[in-house]
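Q: A reviewer asked whether we had any structural model of the full assembly, not just the individual parts. We don't, so I'm hoping you can provide one. Inputs are below.
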Amino acid sequence: MQKYAMFMFSVLLVAALLVACAPPTPVAPEKVRVALILPSTIDDLAWSQSMYEGVKAVQAELGEDRMEVTVTENLWNPVDAAAAIRDFAEQGYHLIIAHGAQYQNSLFEIAPDFPDTSFAYGTSFKTGDNIFAYDPQAQEGGYLLGIIAGMMTKTNKIGVVGPVEAGDAVKYNYGFVQGVASVNPDAEVSVTYTGSFGDTAGAGEMAKTHMDNGADFLTGTAQQAVGAIQAAKERGVPWLGSDMDQSVVWPDTVMAAQVYNWKEVVRRMVDARVEGKKGGEHLSLSFANGRLSLHFNDRFNIPADVKAKVETTLQAIKDGSLVVPLPSE
Amino acid sequence: MINELLKEGALILILASGVRLATPYLFAALGEMIGQRSGVLNLGVDGTMMLSAFTAFYVTFASGSLALGVLVGVLTGGLMGLIMAVVSVTMRAEQGISGIGLHLFGLGMSNLLFRLSLGAISTVEGFRPLSVPILSDLPVIGAVFFRHNVLVYLAFVLVPVAWVVLFRTPLGLKIRAVGENPQAADTLGVSVTGIRYLCVIIGGMMSGLAGTYLSIGLNNMYVDNITNGMGWIAVALVYFGRWHPWGVLAGSLLFSVVNALQIWVQVRGIAIPYEFAVMMPYVLTIVALAFAVRRAQQPAALSKPYERAEA
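A: Here is a predicted structure for the entire assembly that you could use as a starting point for your response.
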Protein backbone atom coordinates (compact mmCIF):
# COMPACT_ATOMS: atom_id res chain seq x y z
CA MET A 1 0.00 0.00 0.00
CA GLN A 2 2.76 2.30 0.96
CA LYS A 3 4.60 1.43 -2.24
CA TYR A 4 1.52 2.26 -4.24
CA ALA A 5 1.21 5.62 -2.53
CA MET A 6 4.84 6.36 -3.24
CA PHE A 7 4.34 5.47 -6.88
CA MET A 8 1.28 7.71 -7.22
CA PHE A 9 3.11 10.51 -5.50
CA SER A 10 6.01 10.18 -7.96
CA VAL A 11 3.66 10.19 -10.91
CA LEU A 12 1.94 13.30 -9.61
CA LEU A 13 5.27 14.99 -8.98
CA VAL A 14 6.52 14.28 -12.51
CA ALA A 15 3.21 15.43 -13.96
CA ALA A 16 3.40 18.63 -11.97
CA LEU A 17 6.95 19.22 -13.15
CA LEU A 18 5.95 18.59 -16.75
CA VAL A 19 3.12 21.10 -16.49
CA ALA A 20 5.48 23.62 -14.98
CA CYS A 21 7.94 23.19 -17.82
CA ALA A 22 5.37 23.26 -20.60
CA PRO A 23 5.35 26.38 -22.77
CA PRO A 24 3.02 28.91 -21.18
CA THR A 25 -0.36 29.17 -22.81
CA PRO A 26 -0.78 32.59 -24.44
CA VAL A 27 -2.15 35.01 -21.88
CA ALA A 28 -3.91 38.27 -22.59
CA PRO A 29 -1.22 40.67 -23.87
CA GLU A 30 0.20 42.80 -21.12
CA LYS A 31 -0.05 46.57 -21.30
CA VAL A 32 3.39 47.39 -22.57
CA ARG A 33 5.02 50.29 -20.78
CA VAL A 34 7.52 52.16 -22.93
CA ALA A 35 9.96 54.81 -21.72
CA LEU A 36 11.67 56.98 -24.29
CA ILE A 37 14.85 58.88 -23.46
CA LEU A 38 15.67 61.60 -25.98
CA PRO A 39 18.88 63.58 -26.38
CA SER A 40 16.95 66.57 -27.69
CA THR A 41 13.24 67.39 -27.85
CA ILE A 42 10.09 65.93 -29.36
CA ASP A 43 9.88 68.89 -31.73
CA ASP A 44 13.48 69.10 -33.00
CA LEU A 45 12.50 68.27 -36.59
CA ALA A 46 15.21 65.61 -36.61
CA TRP A 47 16.48 62.54 -34.76
CA SER A 48 14.41 62.86 -31.58
CA GLN A 49 11.14 63.96 -33.14
CA SER A 50 11.23 61.20 -35.76
CA MET A 51 11.55 58.55 -33.02
CA TYR A 52 8.90 60.21 -30.85
CA GLU A 53 6.44 60.16 -33.73
CA GLY A 54 7.27 56.50 -34.40
CA VAL A 55 6.53 55.55 -30.79
CA LYS A 56 3.30 57.56 -30.80
CA ALA A 57 2.23 55.89 -34.05
CA VAL A 58 2.65 52.44 -32.49
CA GLN A 59 0.69 53.63 -29.49
CA ALA A 60 -2.11 54.85 -31.77
CA GLU A 61 -2.10 51.46 -33.51
CA LEU A 62 -2.25 49.40 -30.30
CA GLY A 63 -4.46 51.77 -28.36
CA GLU A 64 -3.56 53.71 -25.25
CA ASP A 65 -5.00 50.98 -23.04
CA ARG A 66 -2.39 48.55 -24.35
CA MET A 67 0.63 50.81 -24.55
CA GLU A 68 1.82 53.44 -22.12
CA VAL A 69 4.46 55.95 -23.22
CA THR A 70 6.63 58.16 -21.03
CA VAL A 71 9.08 60.57 -22.62
CA THR A 72 12.09 62.32 -21.09
CA GLU A 73 13.71 65.00 -23.21
CA ASN A 74 17.02 66.84 -23.32
CA LEU A 75 19.05 64.02 -21.76
CA TRP A 76 21.98 64.44 -24.10
CA ASN A 77 24.44 63.73 -21.33
CA PRO A 78 24.87 59.93 -20.93
CA VAL A 79 25.51 60.23 -17.19
CA ASP A 80 22.16 61.94 -16.54
CA ALA A 81 20.52 59.52 -18.94
CA ALA A 82 21.94 56.52 -17.06
CA ALA A 83 20.15 57.66 -13.89
CA ALA A 84 16.90 57.98 -15.82
CA ILE A 85 17.35 54.57 -17.49
CA ARG A 86 17.87 52.84 -14.14
CA ASP A 87 14.95 54.72 -12.66
CA PHE A 88 12.59 53.63 -15.45
CA ALA A 89 13.79 50.03 -15.12
CA GLU A 90 13.11 50.08 -11.38
CA GLN A 91 9.64 51.47 -12.03
CA GLY A 92 8.93 48.37 -14.08
CA TYR A 93 8.86 49.76 -17.61
CA HIS A 94 8.99 46.94 -20.17
CA LEU A 95 10.84 48.65 -22.98
CA ILE A 96 13.28 51.49 -22.43
CA ILE A 97 14.48 53.21 -25.58
CA ALA A 98 17.58 55.35 -25.08
CA HIS A 99 17.70 57.14 -28.39
CA GLY A 100 21.38 57.62 -29.13
CA ALA A 101 24.68 55.83 -29.59
CA GLN A 102 26.09 57.67 -26.58
CA TYR A 103 23.94 55.58 -24.22
CA GLN A 104 25.57 52.28 -25.23
CA ASN A 105 27.89 51.91 -22.24
CA SER A 106 25.20 52.85 -19.72
CA LEU A 107 22.78 50.32 -21.21
CA PHE A 108 25.27 47.47 -21.16
CA GLU A 109 26.03 48.27 -17.53
CA ILE A 110 22.40 48.52 -16.40
CA ALA A 111 20.66 45.88 -18.54
CA PRO A 112 22.04 42.76 -16.75
CA ASP A 113 20.47 44.02 -13.47
CA PHE A 114 16.99 43.98 -15.06
CA PRO A 115 16.77 40.78 -17.12
CA ASP A 116 13.01 41.10 -17.68
CA THR A 117 13.25 44.61 -19.07
CA SER A 118 14.04 45.29 -22.71
CA PHE A 119 16.41 48.08 -23.63
CA ALA A 120 17.03 49.61 -27.02
CA TYR A 121 19.42 52.14 -28.49
CA GLY A 122 21.15 53.15 -31.73
CA THR A 123 22.81 53.95 -34.08
CA SER A 124 24.61 50.67 -33.43
CA PHE A 125 24.65 46.96 -34.18
CA LYS A 126 25.92 45.69 -30.82
CA THR A 127 23.11 43.84 -29.04
CA GLY A 128 22.76 42.14 -25.67
CA ASP A 129 20.45 39.46 -24.21
CA ASN A 130 17.84 42.11 -23.43
CA ILE A 131 19.20 44.90 -25.61
CA PHE A 132 17.98 45.77 -29.10
CA ALA A 133 20.23 47.84 -31.35
CA TYR A 134 18.76 49.80 -34.22
CA ASP A 135 20.73 51.01 -37.15
CA PRO A 136 19.54 53.39 -39.90
CA GLN A 137 21.37 52.72 -43.18
CA ALA A 138 21.54 56.47 -43.67
CA GLN A 139 24.13 56.10 -46.42
CA GLU A 140 21.39 54.79 -48.72
CA GLY A 141 19.31 57.95 -48.54
CA GLY A 142 22.48 60.02 -48.60
CA TYR A 143 23.44 58.34 -51.86
CA LEU A 144 20.04 59.03 -53.45
CA LEU A 145 20.01 62.67 -52.35
CA GLY A 146 23.60 62.99 -53.55
CA ILE A 147 22.42 61.99 -57.03
CA ILE A 148 19.90 64.85 -57.00
CA ALA A 149 22.50 67.39 -55.91
CA GLY A 150 25.14 66.05 -58.29
CA MET A 151 22.88 66.18 -61.33
CA MET A 152 21.29 69.53 -60.55
CA THR A 153 24.19 71.64 -59.27
CA LYS A 154 25.26 74.45 -61.57
CA THR A 155 28.26 75.68 -59.60
CA ASN A 156 29.56 72.16 -58.96
CA LYS A 157 29.85 73.07 -55.30
CA ILE A 158 27.79 71.34 -52.64
CA GLY A 159 27.94 71.92 -48.88
CA VAL A 160 27.30 69.45 -46.05
CA VAL A 161 26.58 70.91 -42.60
CA GLY A 162 27.20 67.98 -40.27
CA PRO A 163 26.89 67.90 -36.48
CA VAL A 164 29.60 65.60 -35.08
CA GLU A 165 31.57 63.05 -37.05
CA ALA A 166 29.76 60.05 -35.56
CA GLY A 167 26.78 57.72 -35.82
CA ASP A 168 24.30 58.10 -38.65
CA ALA A 169 25.69 61.52 -39.62
CA VAL A 170 28.91 59.90 -40.86
CA LYS A 171 27.00 57.19 -42.71
CA TYR A 172 24.74 59.77 -44.34
CA ASN A 173 27.60 62.03 -45.39
CA TYR A 174 29.63 59.13 -46.71
CA GLY A 175 26.73 57.96 -48.85
CA PHE A 176 25.96 61.50 -50.00
CA VAL A 177 29.50 62.12 -51.24
CA GLN A 178 29.44 58.83 -53.18
CA GLY A 179 26.03 59.64 -54.65
CA VAL A 180 27.28 62.97 -55.98
CA ALA A 181 30.45 61.38 -57.36
CA SER A 182 28.44 58.64 -59.13
CA VAL A 183 26.73 61.16 -61.39
CA ASN A 184 29.06 64.17 -61.40
CA PRO A 185 32.76 63.52 -60.77
CA ASP A 186 33.53 67.21 -61.21
CA ALA A 187 31.36 68.36 -58.34
CA GLU A 188 33.12 69.31 -55.16
CA VAL A 189 31.38 68.26 -51.94
CA SER A 190 32.62 70.07 -48.85
CA VAL A 191 31.81 68.10 -45.68
CA THR A 192 31.96 70.20 -42.53
CA TYR A 193 30.96 69.72 -38.89
CA THR A 194 29.79 72.23 -36.30
CA GLY A 195 31.08 70.00 -33.50
CA SER A 196 27.69 69.99 -31.77
CA PHE A 197 24.23 68.54 -32.28
CA GLY A 198 22.48 71.66 -31.02
CA ASP A 199 24.48 74.61 -32.36
CA THR A 200 21.80 76.12 -34.60
CA ALA A 201 23.56 79.49 -34.86
CA GLY A 202 26.81 77.77 -35.79
CA ALA A 203 25.05 75.62 -38.39
CA GLY A 204 23.46 78.74 -39.88
CA GLU A 205 26.80 80.50 -40.10
CA MET A 206 28.37 77.39 -41.63
CA ALA A 207 25.62 77.27 -44.27
CA LYS A 208 26.23 80.96 -45.08
CA THR A 209 29.95 80.28 -45.50
CA HIS A 210 29.18 77.37 -47.86
CA MET A 211 26.93 79.65 -49.92
CA ASP A 212 29.53 82.44 -49.91
CA ASN A 213 31.92 79.84 -51.27
CA GLY A 214 29.53 79.16 -54.15
CA ALA A 215 27.56 76.12 -52.99
CA ASP A 216 24.13 75.91 -54.67
CA PHE A 217 22.96 72.76 -52.85
CA LEU A 218 23.11 72.13 -49.13
CA THR A 219 22.41 69.18 -46.89
CA GLY A 220 23.03 68.14 -43.30
CA THR A 221 21.73 66.17 -40.34
CA ALA A 222 20.72 66.41 -36.65
CA GLN A 223 18.63 69.02 -34.88
CA GLN A 224 21.20 71.78 -35.48
CA ALA A 225 20.39 71.52 -39.21
CA VAL A 226 17.32 73.76 -38.81
CA GLY A 227 19.69 76.73 -38.45
CA ALA A 228 21.29 75.86 -41.76
CA ILE A 229 17.94 75.27 -43.50
CA GLN A 230 16.73 78.72 -42.45
CA ALA A 231 19.97 80.28 -43.76
CA ALA A 232 19.48 78.40 -47.04
CA LYS A 233 15.91 79.65 -47.25
CA GLU A 234 16.99 83.26 -46.84
CA ARG A 235 19.25 82.95 -49.88
CA GLY A 236 16.97 80.70 -51.93
CA VAL A 237 19.33 77.72 -51.96
CA PRO A 238 17.68 74.26 -51.93
CA TRP A 239 18.18 71.88 -49.02
CA LEU A 240 18.21 68.08 -48.98
CA GLY A 241 17.01 66.74 -45.64
CA SER A 242 17.40 63.66 -43.53
CA ASP A 243 15.70 62.05 -40.51
CA MET A 244 12.46 63.92 -41.19
CA ASP A 245 10.88 65.80 -44.04
CA GLN A 246 11.40 69.40 -42.96
CA SER A 247 9.40 70.76 -45.90
CA VAL A 248 6.53 71.14 -43.41
CA VAL A 249 8.33 74.21 -42.09
CA TRP A 250 10.34 75.17 -45.19
CA PRO A 251 8.10 74.28 -48.17
CA ASP A 252 10.18 76.31 -50.62
CA THR A 253 13.58 75.15 -49.42
CA VAL A 254 13.54 71.43 -48.64
CA MET A 255 13.58 69.76 -52.07
CA ALA A 256 13.69 66.13 -50.95
CA ALA A 257 14.33 64.22 -47.74
CA GLN A 258 15.21 60.81 -46.41
CA VAL A 259 12.70 59.85 -43.72
CA TYR A 260 13.25 57.41 -40.84
CA ASN A 261 10.15 55.29 -40.23
CA TRP A 262 10.75 54.39 -36.60
CA LYS A 263 7.22 53.09 -36.21
CA GLU A 264 8.10 49.72 -37.76
CA VAL A 265 11.19 49.42 -35.57
CA VAL A 266 9.29 50.16 -32.38
CA ARG A 267 6.49 47.81 -33.43
CA ARG A 268 9.01 45.01 -34.00
CA MET A 269 10.46 45.46 -30.50
CA VAL A 270 7.02 45.42 -28.90
CA ASP A 271 6.06 42.30 -30.90
CA ALA A 272 9.35 40.61 -30.05
CA ARG A 273 8.50 40.88 -26.36
CA VAL A 274 5.16 39.21 -26.98
CA GLU A 275 7.07 36.38 -28.67
CA GLY A 276 9.23 36.17 -25.58
CA LYS A 277 12.33 37.82 -27.03
CA LYS A 278 13.63 40.53 -24.75
CA GLY A 279 16.43 41.74 -26.99
CA GLY A 280 19.33 40.48 -29.03
CA GLU A 281 18.04 41.76 -32.36
CA HIS A 282 19.90 44.10 -34.66
CA LEU A 283 17.17 46.17 -36.30
CA SER A 284 18.33 47.73 -39.50
CA LEU A 285 16.45 50.59 -41.17
CA SER A 286 16.83 50.35 -44.92
CA PHE A 287 14.92 51.11 -48.09
CA ALA A 288 14.61 47.35 -48.71
CA ASN A 289 12.71 46.77 -45.46
CA GLY A 290 10.67 49.94 -45.83
CA ARG A 291 11.98 51.55 -42.68
CA LEU A 292 13.61 54.28 -44.77
CA SER A 293 11.79 56.25 -47.42
CA LEU A 294 12.45 59.13 -49.74
CA HIS A 295 10.09 62.11 -49.95
CA PHE A 296 10.07 64.53 -52.86
CA ASN A 297 8.68 68.02 -52.46
CA ASP A 298 6.14 68.57 -55.23
CA ARG A 299 6.76 72.29 -55.23
CA PHE A 300 10.10 71.73 -56.92
CA ASN A 301 10.40 70.84 -60.56
CA ILE A 302 12.94 68.09 -60.35
CA PRO A 303 13.86 67.17 -63.96
CA ALA A 304 12.52 63.84 -65.18
CA ASP A 305 15.97 62.40 -65.88
CA VAL A 306 17.04 63.15 -62.28
CA LYS A 307 13.92 61.53 -60.89
CA ALA A 308 14.39 58.53 -63.19
CA LYS A 309 18.01 58.09 -62.10
CA VAL A 310 17.01 58.29 -58.43
CA GLU A 311 14.23 55.80 -59.06
CA THR A 312 16.42 53.20 -60.80
CA THR A 313 19.10 53.62 -58.12
CA LEU A 314 16.48 53.20 -55.43
CA GLN A 315 15.38 49.93 -57.04
CA ALA A 316 18.99 48.77 -57.23
CA ILE A 317 19.44 49.54 -53.53
CA LYS A 318 16.20 47.74 -52.69
CA ASP A 319 17.01 44.57 -54.63
CA GLY A 320 20.55 44.53 -53.34
CA SER A 321 22.31 44.98 -56.68
CA LEU A 322 23.76 48.25 -55.36
CA VAL A 323 25.30 48.30 -51.92
CA VAL A 324 26.43 51.73 -50.79
CA PRO A 325 29.75 51.08 -49.07
CA LEU A 326 30.55 52.47 -45.65
CA PRO A 327 33.89 53.69 -44.34
CA SER A 328 35.86 50.61 -43.33
CA GLU A 329 36.78 50.53 -39.67
CA MET B 1 46.02 78.08 -46.99
CA ILE B 2 47.77 81.38 -46.29
CA ASN B 3 47.61 82.37 -49.96
CA GLU B 4 43.94 81.61 -50.12
CA LEU B 5 43.34 83.53 -46.94
CA LEU B 6 45.12 86.60 -48.21
CA LYS B 7 42.72 86.94 -51.08
CA GLU B 8 40.68 89.96 -50.16
CA GLY B 9 37.36 88.19 -50.73
CA ALA B 10 38.06 85.39 -48.29
CA LEU B 11 39.29 87.71 -45.59
CA ILE B 12 36.24 89.96 -45.88
CA LEU B 13 33.88 86.99 -45.64
CA ILE B 14 35.61 85.66 -42.55
CA LEU B 15 35.72 89.02 -40.81
CA ALA B 16 32.08 89.83 -41.67
CA SER B 17 31.03 86.43 -40.38
CA GLY B 18 33.10 87.07 -37.23
CA VAL B 19 31.29 90.36 -36.66
CA ARG B 20 27.90 88.62 -36.94
CA LEU B 21 28.99 85.90 -34.54
CA ALA B 22 30.51 88.38 -32.07
CA THR B 23 27.29 90.34 -31.62
CA PRO B 24 25.51 88.12 -29.04
CA TYR B 25 28.73 87.78 -27.00
CA LEU B 26 29.23 91.51 -27.10
CA PHE B 27 25.74 92.34 -25.81
CA ALA B 28 25.84 89.73 -23.08
CA ALA B 29 29.44 90.30 -21.97
CA LEU B 30 29.06 94.10 -21.83
CA GLY B 31 25.95 93.70 -19.69
CA GLU B 32 27.64 91.19 -17.41
CA MET B 33 30.64 93.49 -17.13
CA ILE B 34 28.46 96.37 -15.90
CA GLY B 35 26.87 94.13 -13.28
CA GLN B 36 30.26 92.83 -12.13
CA ARG B 37 31.64 96.37 -11.98
CA SER B 38 28.99 97.07 -9.36
CA GLY B 39 30.01 93.93 -7.48
CA VAL B 40 27.38 91.43 -8.63
CA LEU B 41 28.35 88.21 -10.37
CA ASN B 42 25.32 87.10 -12.40
CA LEU B 43 25.68 83.60 -13.81
CA GLY B 44 22.13 83.68 -15.16
CA VAL B 45 23.25 85.15 -18.50
CA ASP B 46 22.62 82.02 -20.57
CA GLY B 47 19.14 81.41 -19.15
CA THR B 48 18.25 85.08 -19.54
CA MET B 49 19.32 84.95 -23.18
CA MET B 50 17.14 81.90 -23.81
CA LEU B 51 14.06 83.37 -22.20
CA SER B 52 14.46 86.67 -24.05
CA ALA B 53 15.12 84.82 -27.30
CA PHE B 54 11.81 83.11 -26.82
CA THR B 55 9.72 86.11 -25.78
CA ALA B 56 11.18 88.32 -28.53
CA PHE B 57 10.54 85.60 -31.09
CA TYR B 58 7.04 84.90 -29.90
CA VAL B 59 5.97 88.54 -29.90
CA THR B 60 7.47 89.07 -33.35
CA PHE B 61 5.80 85.91 -34.58
CA ALA B 62 2.42 86.89 -33.18
CA SER B 63 2.46 90.61 -33.95
CA GLY B 64 4.74 90.80 -36.98
CA SER B 65 6.55 93.71 -35.36
CA LEU B 66 10.30 93.41 -34.89
CA ALA B 67 10.39 96.56 -32.76
CA LEU B 68 7.85 95.09 -30.38
CA GLY B 69 9.90 91.89 -30.31
CA VAL B 70 13.04 93.78 -29.30
CA LEU B 71 11.13 95.72 -26.65
CA VAL B 72 9.71 92.57 -25.09
CA GLY B 73 13.06 90.77 -25.33
CA VAL B 74 14.77 93.63 -23.49
CA LEU B 75 12.03 93.86 -20.87
CA THR B 76 12.23 90.11 -20.28
CA GLY B 77 15.97 90.47 -19.71
CA GLY B 78 15.35 93.39 -17.36
CA LEU B 79 12.87 91.32 -15.39
CA MET B 80 15.38 88.48 -15.09
CA GLY B 81 17.91 91.07 -13.89
CA LEU B 82 15.41 92.32 -11.33
CA ILE B 83 14.92 88.78 -9.99
CA MET B 84 18.67 88.39 -9.68
CA ALA B 85 18.94 91.76 -7.92
CA VAL B 86 16.21 90.93 -5.41
CA VAL B 87 17.79 87.58 -4.60
CA SER B 88 21.43 88.64 -4.52
CA VAL B 89 21.31 92.29 -3.40
CA THR B 90 18.28 92.54 -1.13
CA MET B 91 18.24 88.98 0.15
CA ARG B 92 22.05 88.69 -0.04
CA ALA B 93 21.98 85.15 -1.38
CA GLU B 94 25.23 83.58 -2.52
CA GLN B 95 25.62 85.05 -6.01
CA GLY B 96 27.13 82.08 -7.81
CA ILE B 97 24.35 79.77 -6.68
CA SER B 98 21.51 82.21 -7.30
CA GLY B 99 22.85 82.97 -10.77
CA ILE B 100 22.88 79.29 -11.66
CA GLY B 101 19.34 79.08 -10.32
CA LEU B 102 18.34 81.99 -12.53
CA HIS B 103 19.95 80.27 -15.51
CA LEU B 104 18.04 77.05 -14.86
CA PHE B 105 14.83 79.03 -14.49
CA GLY B 106 15.37 80.69 -17.87
CA LEU B 107 16.30 77.39 -19.50
CA GLY B 108 13.24 75.56 -18.20
CA MET B 109 10.84 78.45 -18.62
CA SER B 110 11.80 79.15 -22.23
CA ASN B 111 11.36 75.47 -23.14
CA LEU B 112 8.04 75.31 -21.33
CA LEU B 113 6.62 78.48 -22.89
CA PHE B 114 7.78 77.39 -26.32
CA ARG B 115 6.06 74.03 -25.91
CA LEU B 116 2.86 75.61 -24.62
CA SER B 117 2.59 78.43 -27.12
CA LEU B 118 4.18 77.31 -30.40
CA GLY B 119 4.90 73.62 -29.94
CA ALA B 120 6.84 73.37 -33.18
CA ILE B 121 9.69 75.14 -34.87
CA SER B 122 8.56 78.14 -36.87
CA THR B 123 10.37 81.05 -38.45
CA VAL B 124 9.97 84.82 -38.78
CA GLU B 125 11.23 87.49 -41.12
CA GLY B 126 13.97 88.81 -38.89
CA PHE B 127 16.04 91.97 -39.15
CA ARG B 128 17.47 92.46 -42.62
CA PRO B 129 20.94 93.82 -43.29
CA LEU B 130 20.96 97.59 -43.52
CA SER B 131 23.90 99.11 -45.36
CA VAL B 132 25.20 102.29 -43.78
CA PRO B 133 25.37 104.98 -46.49
CA ILE B 134 28.91 105.97 -47.57
CA LEU B 135 30.60 103.83 -44.90
CA SER B 136 29.38 100.58 -46.51
CA ASP B 137 31.20 101.56 -49.72
CA LEU B 138 34.59 101.77 -48.02
CA PRO B 139 36.92 99.05 -49.23
CA VAL B 140 37.14 96.01 -46.92
CA ILE B 141 35.90 97.84 -43.83
CA GLY B 142 32.58 98.60 -45.52
CA ALA B 143 31.83 94.95 -46.17
CA VAL B 144 33.14 93.80 -42.80
CA PHE B 145 31.39 96.29 -40.54
CA PHE B 146 28.70 98.25 -42.34
CA ARG B 147 26.46 95.73 -44.09
CA HIS B 148 24.78 94.13 -41.09
CA ASN B 149 21.44 94.48 -39.39
CA VAL B 150 20.67 97.20 -36.88
CA LEU B 151 21.20 95.01 -33.80
CA VAL B 152 24.80 94.36 -34.85
CA TYR B 153 25.44 98.12 -35.06
CA LEU B 154 23.79 98.60 -31.68
CA ALA B 155 26.09 96.03 -30.06
CA PHE B 156 29.21 97.75 -31.37
CA VAL B 157 27.92 101.24 -30.50
CA LEU B 158 27.33 100.08 -26.93
CA VAL B 159 31.08 99.51 -26.45
CA PRO B 160 32.08 103.21 -26.45
CA VAL B 161 28.83 104.06 -24.67
CA ALA B 162 29.71 101.66 -21.85
CA TRP B 163 33.22 103.10 -21.72
CA VAL B 164 31.99 106.69 -21.48
CA VAL B 165 29.42 105.86 -18.83
CA LEU B 166 31.81 103.83 -16.71
CA PHE B 167 34.87 106.07 -16.92
CA ARG B 168 33.68 109.56 -17.80
CA THR B 169 30.50 110.13 -15.81
CA PRO B 170 29.66 110.52 -12.10
CA LEU B 171 27.35 107.52 -12.43
CA GLY B 172 30.25 105.39 -13.69
CA LEU B 173 32.36 106.52 -10.75
CA LYS B 174 29.59 105.47 -8.36
CA ILE B 175 29.28 102.09 -10.08
CA ARG B 176 33.00 101.44 -9.80
CA ALA B 177 33.09 102.68 -6.21
CA VAL B 178 30.27 100.33 -5.24
CA GLY B 179 32.10 97.44 -6.86
CA GLU B 180 35.44 98.27 -5.26
CA ASN B 181 34.54 99.53 -1.82
CA PRO B 182 30.83 99.61 -1.02
CA GLN B 183 31.44 100.76 2.59
CA ALA B 184 33.25 103.88 1.40
CA ALA B 185 30.64 104.57 -1.26
CA ASP B 186 27.88 104.17 1.29
CA THR B 187 29.61 106.57 3.65
CA LEU B 188 29.65 109.15 0.87
CA GLY B 189 25.92 108.81 0.41
CA VAL B 190 25.89 106.52 -2.64
CA SER B 191 23.06 104.01 -2.51
CA VAL B 192 24.85 100.66 -2.87
CA THR B 193 21.55 98.85 -3.26
CA GLY B 194 20.26 101.32 -5.84
CA ILE B 195 23.41 101.19 -7.97
CA ARG B 196 23.56 97.40 -7.85
CA TYR B 197 19.88 97.08 -8.81
CA LEU B 198 20.45 99.45 -11.72
CA CYS B 199 23.53 97.62 -12.99
CA VAL B 200 22.10 94.12 -12.65
CA ILE B 201 18.88 95.14 -14.40
CA ILE B 202 20.82 96.82 -17.24
CA GLY B 203 22.99 93.71 -17.46
CA GLY B 204 19.87 91.59 -17.72
CA MET B 205 18.50 93.84 -20.45
CA MET B 206 21.70 93.43 -22.44
CA SER B 207 21.58 89.65 -22.04
CA GLY B 208 18.02 90.05 -23.27
CA LEU B 209 19.30 91.88 -26.35
CA ALA B 210 21.78 89.07 -26.94
CA GLY B 211 18.97 86.51 -26.90
CA THR B 212 16.76 88.74 -29.03
CA TYR B 213 19.51 89.01 -31.62
CA LEU B 214 19.78 85.21 -31.78
CA SER B 215 16.10 84.57 -32.39
CA ILE B 216 15.09 87.52 -34.59
CA GLY B 217 18.39 88.89 -35.86
CA LEU B 218 20.56 85.87 -36.69
CA ASN B 219 18.66 82.56 -36.70
CA ASN B 220 15.20 84.03 -37.37
CA MET B 221 13.68 81.09 -35.52
CA TYR B 222 13.40 79.81 -32.00
CA VAL B 223 14.66 76.38 -31.02
CA ASP B 224 15.15 74.83 -27.59
CA ASN B 225 18.47 75.72 -26.00
CA ILE B 226 19.09 78.30 -28.71
CA THR B 227 22.18 79.73 -26.99
CA ASN B 228 24.09 76.46 -26.94
CA GLY B 229 26.16 77.80 -24.03
CA MET B 230 26.95 81.27 -25.44
CA GLY B 231 25.99 82.93 -22.15
CA TRP B 232 28.75 81.08 -20.33
CA ILE B 233 31.32 82.13 -22.90
CA ALA B 234 30.09 85.71 -22.39
CA VAL B 235 30.82 85.46 -18.65
CA ALA B 236 34.32 84.20 -19.47
CA LEU B 237 34.80 87.09 -21.89
CA VAL B 238 34.24 89.58 -19.04
CA TYR B 239 37.28 88.10 -17.28
CA PHE B 240 39.12 87.98 -20.58
CA GLY B 241 38.34 91.65 -21.16
CA ARG B 242 39.50 92.57 -17.65
CA TRP B 243 36.21 94.30 -16.85
CA HIS B 244 36.87 96.85 -19.57
CA PRO B 245 34.57 97.54 -22.58
CA TRP B 246 37.46 97.54 -25.06
CA GLY B 247 38.81 94.33 -23.58
CA VAL B 248 35.38 92.72 -23.89
CA LEU B 249 35.21 93.88 -27.50
CA ALA B 250 38.66 92.41 -28.21
CA GLY B 251 37.72 89.09 -26.60
CA SER B 252 34.38 88.82 -28.41
CA LEU B 253 36.00 89.57 -31.74
CA LEU B 254 38.94 87.22 -31.18
CA PHE B 255 36.68 84.32 -30.24
CA SER B 256 34.22 84.94 -33.07
CA VAL B 257 36.68 85.69 -35.84
CA VAL B 258 38.61 82.53 -35.03
CA ASN B 259 35.30 80.67 -35.06
CA ALA B 260 34.47 82.14 -38.47
CA LEU B 261 37.97 81.23 -39.64
CA GLN B 262 37.63 77.61 -38.59
CA ILE B 263 34.27 77.37 -40.39
CA TRP B 264 35.89 78.81 -43.52
CA VAL B 265 38.84 76.41 -43.22
CA GLN B 266 36.41 73.48 -43.09
CA VAL B 267 34.27 74.75 -45.96
CA ARG B 268 37.33 75.24 -48.15
CA GLY B 269 38.23 71.64 -47.48
CA ILE B 270 41.61 72.47 -45.97
CA ALA B 271 42.92 69.26 -44.48
CA ILE B 272 42.73 69.85 -40.75
CA PRO B 273 40.80 67.39 -38.54
CA TYR B 274 37.46 69.07 -37.88
CA GLU B 275 37.77 68.41 -34.14
CA PHE B 276 40.84 70.59 -34.11
CA ALA B 277 39.11 73.29 -36.15
CA VAL B 278 36.12 73.38 -33.82
CA MET B 279 38.44 73.62 -30.82
CA MET B 280 40.42 76.58 -32.15
CA PRO B 281 38.35 79.48 -30.79
CA TYR B 282 38.21 77.94 -27.32
CA VAL B 283 41.90 77.07 -27.18
CA LEU B 284 42.99 80.50 -28.37
CA THR B 285 40.66 82.21 -25.91
CA ILE B 286 41.97 80.12 -23.02
CA VAL B 287 45.57 80.83 -24.00
CA ALA B 288 44.86 84.54 -24.25
CA LEU B 289 42.98 84.41 -20.95
CA ALA B 290 45.94 82.79 -19.23
CA PHE B 291 48.07 85.79 -20.15
CA ALA B 292 45.41 88.42 -19.58
CA VAL B 293 44.45 87.32 -16.09
CA ARG B 294 47.92 87.98 -14.69
CA ARG B 295 47.24 91.65 -14.93
CA ALA B 296 43.58 91.32 -14.10
CA GLN B 297 42.04 93.54 -11.48
CA GLN B 298 38.65 92.22 -10.66
CA PRO B 299 36.31 94.53 -8.72
CA ALA B 300 37.34 94.04 -5.09
CA ALA B 301 33.76 93.56 -3.87
CA LEU B 302 32.78 91.21 -6.68
CA SER B 303 30.31 88.55 -5.52
CA LYS B 304 30.28 89.88 -1.97
CA PRO B 305 26.82 90.88 -0.72
CA TYR B 306 26.91 94.27 0.99
CA GLU B 307 25.71 94.50 4.53
CA ARG B 308 25.76 97.90 6.18
CA ALA B 309 27.48 97.62 9.55
CA GLU B 310 24.97 98.64 12.18
CA ALA B 311 26.30 101.18 14.61
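A: Points you may want to mention in the reply: Chain B is about 70% helix and 0% strand. The first helix of chain B runs from residue 2 to 6.
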